[in-house]
Design brief:
The structure is a homodimer of 209-residue chains.
Chain A (H helix, E strand, L loop, with lengths): L15 H9 L1 E6 L4 E3 L7 E7 L2 E6 L5 E7 L4 E2 L1 H6 L6 E4 L3 E7 H10 L1 H27 L2 H11 L9 H8 L3 H13 L3 E2 L4 E2 L1 H5 L3
Antiparallel strand pairs in A: 1-8, 2-7, 3-6, 3-8, 4-5, 4-7, 9-10
Helix pairs in contact in A: 3-4, 6-7
Chain A binds a DNA duplex (30 and 30 nucleotides) through helix 7.
DNA sequence: TATAATTACTGATTTATATCAACACGATGG
DNA sequence: CCATCGTGTTGATATAAATCAGTAATTATA
């Protein structure tokens, strides 16, 4: 295996011997952009650990509307719930860029977790992070309206906002590109953002959410 | 203390000695209906374990709209994320009925978790349950429209649907009572539910979500 | 450089759902 | 027994955002 587990956050402070054991039932995979990692409804067998790239997790509703639940980045665990609960994956995971993942045999990992407090602690931390993220999605999507969501997004992504395509931002925020365009126009008209000068008035933005 | 921790799901399979230790920094509280357990923004110090009753967790948006994130029932843990992450509570918890809670000093509990695999495992299970619930909220609220949400609710609550007030169901589903009334009328008109006969055509309902 | 493809903008229309308003019905309490 | 309160129903209207449609601007490609 090319990737060494000990360099991965999830396995920090876990002893060499345990790591070696885990490496025995872990495989490394490359998934190229736009390919599916797993489908909604698939039976889980592996825990996925995203090493590199971005994975998009989404659901398709009955009327074929795609709702993005989350974009996963480096070092994030994917599919714990399905694995822990022995239920089919509730959403589809697709490579949003070229991606490197580790597939860990979950049944075997479970035993190791149980006998290794450090690993258990790391998994716990990862679960808590995920809860935090989900709670954030809920409060962002259910509590804020579109303009507030956009304001919050720009505020939190001031560094790369001008380098991100609007259609991507629209997808992330779950609004239509047209709506986003109109909201951005509003912020431009109010001198809160300036695309040419790459200027963002964060103090003004914060008023909007 | 009146309540014995060993009778609580979270402490199942945890040895007597550990339980006794935990009892030393756990206190028991009664909160009567409509009173606040903690406010959004409060600094967390205790982990709450709901022993009896229902606690409503909600956020109030900038335009004073209340969004219910979750109703907690018996044996559920409240506030793990805030405690684990050392961040202020992201939402307000209010007693929805008369309620009994345990307040557990989190800093002290943390040490115990670390040295007790069974407890760690139980906490992990509780975290996974919470993730599952949050994912469910997201898919219900973001992917389904109102009619689909109502159909899903009736399908999943066939046993107590006719005993629950519509205004409560509306709040749980995050739709207005008027909208719920109109949707129920639709299902009645299509002979999918019948209030007098307390009849629910679950097979027909499932088509709607 | 010219052409095609993608992305962004803008106006008009549609849609789902909330809100407002009026009213009906049953339960509760003086 | 009537008045009041909580709940449910129904219609009319308002609102946020999606969709549709056309065009402009930008980026990629031949």
């Amino acid at each position: 295996m090319r990737i060494h587990l000990k360099n991965i956050v999830l396995f920090q402070n876990v002893d060499e011997e345990t790591i070696k054991k885990i490496e025995h039932f872990t495989t490394e995979h490359k998934v190229s952009k736009e390919n599916i990692v797993f489908y909604e409804g698939d039976e889980p067998k592996y825990l996925y650990l995203l090493v590199k790239g971005v994975i998009k997790l989404y659901k398709t509703s009955s009327n074929h509307k795609e709702v993005v639940l989350k974009y996963f980045h480096d070092n994030e665990l994917i599919g714990e719930v399905a694995n822990f609960e022995g239920m089919p994956y509730p959403a589809t995971a697709k490579a949003y860029s070229d991606v490197e993942v580790l597939k860990i045999d979950f049944e075997k990992l479970k035993d190791v977790i149980f006998s290794n407090p450090n690993l258990a602690f790391n998994i716990q931390t990862s679960l808590v992070k995920k809860i935090k993220n989900l709670e954030n999605i809920i409060s962002t999507n259910l509590v804020l309206d579109s303009k507030e969501r956009v304001a919050k997004y720009i505020y939190n992504h001031a560094d790369d906002f001008f380098e991100t395509k609007n259609i991507e931002i629209a997808e992330i925020l779950g609004v239509s590109p047209e709506t986003l365009s109109r909201i951005l126009k509003f912020f431009k008209d109010h001198d809160i953002i300036n695309v040419k000068k790459k200027y963002i008035d964060r103090d003004a933005l914060i008023q909007y959410f």
